[in-house]
Amino acid sequence: MSQGVVREMVTTALLGALNGAKKKGQLKTETWPTLNLDAPKRPEWGDLASTVAMSLASSEQRAPHDIAQIIVENLPQREQLFERVEIVRPGFLNLTIKPVLWQEVLKEIESRGAAYGRADLGQRRRVLVEYVSANPTGPLHVGHGRGAAVGQAVASLLEAVGYDVVSEYCRDLAYQELLSLIRDDLKSFGIEFQSWFSEASLLESKAVERVLDELRSRQLLFEQEGAWWFRSSMFGDEKDRVVKKQDGEYTYLASDIAYHRDKLQRGYDLLIDIWGADHHGYIPRMQAVMQAYGYPKEQLQVVLVQLVKLLRAGVEVKMSKRTGEFITMREVIDEVGADAAKFFFLMRDAKSHLEFDLELAKQRSADNPVYYVQYAYARICSLWRVAAARGIVCPSAVETDLTVLTDPDELGLIRKLSAYPEVLQASASAFEPHRVTYYLQQLAALLHTFYNKHRIMPPAGEQEQGEVAPTEELTPKRTAARLVLMRGVQQVIQNGLAVLGISAPQQM
Q1: For position 57, which CATH number holds?
Q2: What's the rounded Cα separation, in Å, for the pair 464 and 127?
Q3: Nearest-CA neighbor of 426 among 89, 158, 106?
Q4: What is the tens place of the pLDDT at every residue in 274-287?
Q5: Is 57 a member of any domain?
């Protein structure tokens, strides 16, 4: 039972309380506000918090605390759903969920395995994600690397929540050697495109001429001083744009119009372009293109990727030692590895500038975020090797008494595991893969804290886990339940890394 299901149950209960109170004449508001649920800032305050009482204060003309009292009195299935319900002034509802509901999460993770967190939000709608296409006239540099990591992760996230996704590279590459070099660079980064689209094919097939003729026939092009202009200002752009110059040469916009028209004619329901942040001003004109062809501008979504500043031990690095010019994506991958490069590229919101410290990315310590997350996975793998050597078998979740998992640290881990599907779906909907890296770092932190604080298996001679609570009672039931918990953590870390295109090593 994921957090989404738990939240749905709580939302239903709150709505039932509101409707029940209204039926009794205790509340009078005609339309209820959106029932948002947030995690309290401190775990001891509960699992979920609602501000619905404060939202109703104006329409009810009553104190939020009084409204909260009415809601609590009318909560259906209160004893079955909530361990504790508290009202905190001025009117917060702090809700602590019954542990048995969180414990069910481990059964869901086990039953779904690699599919845990995945959803069918997209309902197999077709999406084309285009990235790394912006002006590579030589080897890919670190900016392309960040765009590649973001593009691949966005495509993977959308696929995970039920879209039918194709990733495409579109560029007119004059030299086969350069094309081969770029393919090799991307392959070393774990990226292979399903489709390679040639810009030259648009000109050779007369596609540019055809789309411009089509726009001209609809009075969306006009001639002025020997050049042809697209009436993009009709669709929200700040001014009209040239598509064919006075000398007869087509502009980049003309090719992009033809290319995006081609994408639409191929039947894609959503187009996503990954661009450098310096292309921000290009968005309105391409949204104008979508509207000119009768599509909503939202059918084209653009993810902007900001610049990367390379650091070495805190000092900016601008030039390649090898070539004396810019540092290539391949050089970064060769130095820190594809996993570290990808994780660092995805650690921050793509719209934010990124400082990438090469020395930090190579460290085998808790200071290195990717090492910290991968080590959490490897640590659990090590646990299975120790268990196997002792003849201890991890039982299935359905055969295990999970009601013994009542320690705050145990429940804290389960709550974090339950949040993964919601994080995955929100990350996909917003095209923001950094949400997943942030989540994985939080989960890894909880795992490492738990591992250092609690025993998972009874000691056999030397303490494999280092300094753990020596007085903590560890019954066979609790050992079995904690092993199931560790397997759930391992599965979710593996799932999260996989959607980012990052490996989950069994030993480090």
Answers
A1: 3.30.1360.70
A2: 48
A3: 158
A4: 999 989 999 999 99
A5: yes
